[in-house]
């Protein structure tokens, strides 16, 4: 009887080892494969992003809110994504809208291979660069700019500055949209209104995140 118990325990240990979620670790974050989903977790902070790699759909509230706004936009879809992270939003957008072209900028390129694996690379450009430096040095114009920049749960200090936001507005084509994910900044809306003075601004809130959607006037 004891021998049978030992055999069962050994079998259980082997199953645990074989089916343990695969983890790709780095200094700041990791992603875990759980069934059909890929999850990104920041160490000591919690889950940051999640998408289904079979359906190519993002699964987080704030991503889905932004994607829904993009789907409703009548603009061409030349999109700049500041902060690629796991890449679920980019993968979802490119899969759902065959007219979308996305440029993703991130200070780390560790997840770029993952994004390319599940995306149409003919409509995708990924750039390893600091977002602040990128927008300061580019003359490109976009229909849509998405800002999802974080260090852990904190936004970099430069994001909610007049210099950064003014350049964002200059980069938007007439009628363009700016979407920004906000965490832990109750003053964000008032700061953004100082730059996008006469533009259309709406917000959406769900527990941890505040989303601000801006549509610039045709001028």
Short description:
The protein is an alpha/beta fold and 219 residues long.
Layout of helices and strands, plus pairs?
Layout: H1 2-19, E1 23-25, E2 29-34, E3 37-42, E4 46-52, E5 57-58, H2 61-72, E6 78-82, H3 88-96, E7 101-106, H4 112-117, E8 124-128, H5 131-137, E9 142-147, H6 162-171, E10 172-182, H7 188-195, E11 200-206, E12 209-215
Parallel strand pairs: 6-7, 6-9, 7-8, 9-10
Antiparallel strand pairs: 1-2, 2-3, 3-4, 4-5, 10-12, 11-12
Helix pairs in contact: 2-3, 6-7
Name of the CATH homologous superfamily: Vaccinia Virus protein VP39
CATH names the topology as Rossmann fold
Please state the overall shape, judged from the principal axes of the Cα atoms: elongated
Q: Spatial order of the strands in the main sheet? A: 8-7-6-9-10-12-11
Summarize the helix and strand pattern as letters: HEEEEEHEHEHEHEHEHEE
Give the total of domains.
1
> Uncertain runs with pLDDT below 50, 5 residues or more?
16-29
Mean pLDDT: 84
Number of strands: 12
Give the count of helical stretches: 7
**Main sheet summary:** 7 strands, mixed
Percent helix, as a range, is 25-40%
Classification by helices and strands: alpha/beta
């Amino acid at each position: 009887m004891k021998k049978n118990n030992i055999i069962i325990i050994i079998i259980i240990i082997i199953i645990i080892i074989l089916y343990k979620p695969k983890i790709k670790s780095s200094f700041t974050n990791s992603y875990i494969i759980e069934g059909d989903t890929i999850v990104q977790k920041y160490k000591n902070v919690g889950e940051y992003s999640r998408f289904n790699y079979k359906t190519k759909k993002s699964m987080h509230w704030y991503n889905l809110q932004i994607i829904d706004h993009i789907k409703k936009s009548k603009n061409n879809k030349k999109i700049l994504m500041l902060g690629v992270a796991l890449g679920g939003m980019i993968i979802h957008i490119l899969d759902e809208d065959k007219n979308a072209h996305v440029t993703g900028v991130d200070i780390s390129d560790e997840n770029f291979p993952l994004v390319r694996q599940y995306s149409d690379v003919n409509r995708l450009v990924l750039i390893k660069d600091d977002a602040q430096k990128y927008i300061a040095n580019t003359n490109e114009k976009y229909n849509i700019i998405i800002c999802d920049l974080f260090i852990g749960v904190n936004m970099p200090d430069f994001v909610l500055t007049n210099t950064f936001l003014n350049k964002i507005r200059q980069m938007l084509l007439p009628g363009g949209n700016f979407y920004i994910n906000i965490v832990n900044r109750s003053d964000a809306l008032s700061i953004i209104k100082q730059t996008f003075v006469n533009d259309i601004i709406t917000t959406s809130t769900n527990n941890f995140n505040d989303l601000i959607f801006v549509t610039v006037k045709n001028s």
